């Protein structure tokens, strides 16, 4: 949830822009996504937050160009004094990419974080990974989500979608899965 707060602050200070993304094709950084849903799109440098009903009710986080030794959610760079953390490293296996994203969620305060259905996914001509997850936020709300991650040209692209399991997840999961399954690189 730290990303939502950071992007909201950027939007307030003018460093991020907020636009409506109508259903259909969209280009996000070097990605092409085709969505069946309308989204509010908050743009920031190398990361975006998309939401339908507000970030506490559903959010799609898009991270592009995460560099080696950089935090999976681009929160900060690795330091020698703090080597533990969800730092991206080139050449990570599928299970390591899953754990990297799950550890990033834990670091933001999520508890009871678990991943499931780890599976390979091809994005254009690049091998990546998809998986589902469940978590509880610091306020006790149970979320379900799905993620896509792929290393391309030594950098990580990650998409993380989450919504409360009680209603919003089940309402949108099929459309979000189709969008992530069809994700392609534009360049």
Automatic annotation (TrEMBL):
It comes from the Bacteria. It comes from Lysobacter capsici AZ78. Residues 1-16 form the signal peptide. This is Lipoprotein. Keywords: Signal.
